[in-house]
Predict the 3D structure of the following.
Amino acid sequence: MGHQVADIPDVTSAQGAGGAPPAIECRGITKRFGHVLANDAVDLVVRRGSIHGVIGENGAGKSTLMAILHGFYPMDAGEIRVDGRPVTIRDSADAIRLGIEMVHQHFMLVEPFRVIENIMLGAEGGMLLAGGEAAARASLARLGRDYGLVVDPDARIGDLPVGARQRVEILKALHRGAEILILDEPTGVLTPQEADDLFRVLRALRDEGKAVILITHKLREVMAVTDRVSVMRGGKMVAHRETAKTSAAELGELMIGRRPAAAARPAPATPGPELLSVQDLRVRDGAGVERVRGVSLALHAGEILGIAGVAGNGQTELLEALSGMRRAESGTIRLRGEVLPPCDAAAMRGRGVAHVPEDRLRHGLVADFPAQDTAILGYHGDPMWRRVLGLISNRAVEAHAAGLMATHDVRPAAPRLRSSLFSGGNQQKLIMGRELERAPDVLLVGQPTRGVDIGGIEAIHRRLRAWRDAGKAVLMVSVELDEILALSDRILVMFDGRIVGELPAGADERQLGLLMAGAHA
Amino acid sequence: MTRPLPRWAELALLPLLNLVLAMAVSALVVLAAGQSPTAALHALAIGSFGSWDAIGFTLFYATNMAFAGLAVAIAFKAGLFNIGVEGQAAMAGLGIALVCLGLDASLPALLLLPLAILGSAAFGAAWGYVPGWLQARRGSHVVITTIMFNFIAASLMVYLLVNVLIQPGQMAPETRRFATGLAALSSFGFPGRSPANVTLILALLAAFVVWVLVWRTPWGYGLRVVGSNPEAARYAGIDEGRRIIVVMAISGALAAGIAVNEILGVHQKLILNFTGGAGFTGIAVALMGRNHPVGVLLAALLFGALAQGGSELAFEMPDLPRDMVVVVQGLIILFTGALGALLRAPLARVMARG
Ligand SMILES: Nc1ncnc2c1ncn2[C@@H]1O[C@H](COP(=O)(O)OP(=O)(O)OP(=O)(O)O)[C@@H](O)[C@H]1O
Ligand SMILES: [Mg+2]
């Protein structure tokens, strides 16, 4: 087809430097979902031996493009070439045969199985597993050596931290002979150290001559690790750049199509009375392990309290206990000075404590529900959408959701679309909107901007600050250092279930990092 | 991986295609048995819809299927597989018998019948409540416990009918006729001679109530959250355990409709095995009806027609093995239930292209 967009300097033209055809060449890829043109004549050329970043706002169509490359969706129009040969990718089996592998944002691993068994999935090697297992072990050892991808083959997936699970996903892909590796927002759930490890692996893969496609919202990562970068906006490919010849500022501008507003220096907080306080809280997780080990803290009206810490140090359980999702083992929680009896999440909401959960897919929404039903989750008994005989009026719910989507810029503004079909960032905006809409006195937020694009992050941060300025209290848990530093009026650092330090707004990043790593005493 | 189909295709086209496929395979089986498929289909159609009598019988069976299907469907909305409709219906029959045997001498039919219906619902509900409680509070899987409760109900019925409730001086394990003063429940002026009775109206009413309950109340909203994402239920403060217990009780109460239809509607006495497997067919009905009341009613009509048309078929074509109808039913269950997704991927591909 030779489709070209005239005004884009396409530095990644079809012929690679040595004349070798590119690993992947997409021309004019188009995909429509109902009214949404998710991919509009998209071109993308990815060379062997390169790490290629794909960036763009939430809903720009990045995941859709990758889903097409991986055979999850058929395209409406366009052409894909792998190593110069035109191919049709009907399903993921086709993609795998062509060496195209995808590391999903939500891991596709069998939790009760061991690492080695997961690696062998889809490549069992015959009726008897023993042969396949020996081969897998050998290849695991080799891959570990070559790329520094070290995982204990006999560990159970359920026992592994997120970073290690992701390594297993990558190992699985390589074991099946991946030549082109696609990673969709791989660092969203990683700690900074884990992200660094991942990048080391990706560089090793590149040096080996493989092609890596990396989707991320973090421009810092793009600048640090990619060789080339392509920018999508509103379903279209709007620019291709060599990373060395561009800047984060230019990329940001290309993404949103205008110069980003300079972040206004936030006014300092003027904390009011104590709204929520906790004494000596102890919480066990589902497996009975004590995760919160004697936490005391106070949250005031008119402040954003940031809880910093590497993932897995008890922040999740702290949030769950405060929001009523999990019964605390011991300790007292006071709201506006009153000691709370054990409450479930509904009772906490009734008392004006709203909660944006860390894990939006597991907790924040019901994937099968239309967005409008997800938009009333937790508030479904509210009289606002109940009409005749107290029955829920679908029309009222839809109107409510439409309003919410407009205020919080959820795209597409389609209340009846299934919740799972929204892009990750837009799901987050929907949940955030749902919780803010109720004007809670206390807002508990876990990872407020996970998977949200730059513009969206700005909007969410602005909203949280406005909330604070309106005299409400915000307790935020985040593993993103930048976010903690940008938003918090006060920072508490959690390590191993305890608060190990308190820092003021604008604290030193190094000091914070040290505390997070447990270097206190 | 499955790609989502448009709603109308998922709800109407796919079940219809599955049905056609099941019929086609059935036709092959009939052919293999040396009989004419068209003649069989003709006999089936005439047998189930060819006269007022036939329609009445079809509707009578469909009533059983509708209640059974609704019972399975509402539990399924909470992610629960209630295999115990059979036992719950049997116990509901016992409820009717106890009310009628105890009070039919002292109460007029106008009071007695509603009381008997309430009694049956209460007994059915109790027989669903216990497995629900065991699941919610003790973690005993509801599939296992409801199967066990079917056996317990069956043994209990035999024991009671043989030893306790049997009419003195009789050999048959059944109670005396209730003195309701009626031959059977009113057929609300339905033409012809068939057992179709007002329970049919109750079934339509029940379907409507189930729809309102599940799709229009906060309780039902919570139920659906529990069914599709229990973790989100915890986040929303929806008490999963309470929902499970209550929905199992409601499911059991719906199963009682079978007892009302059979015992009050026709027999006017408690007999053994009056449910005739309707409780199990309900699983297929719910599957085919996609656990939606409207779908369940349509599927119930289909299975009712198969039950009625099937017996006519056996009568009309004596050379066709009697089990043929069971085979057809089995094929429909197979293609709409177990293999319900068989055609989804090709259909999605065709529609994506078109
Ligand atoms: N199966 C689907 N049905 C309908 N619309 C869809 C479907 N999948 C994606 N979309 C829509 O297509 C658009 C592109 O979505 P996509 O997931 O590709 O965005 P993205 O660039 O990955 O965004 P994010 O950064 O938020 O993950 C969005 O508007 C999304 O709602
Ligand atoms: Mg995406």
Residues 295-516 of chain A form a domain with the Rossmann fold fold (CATH 3.40.50.300). The two ends of chain A are 65 Å apart (CA to CA). Chain A touches chain B through 36 residues (CB under 8 Å).
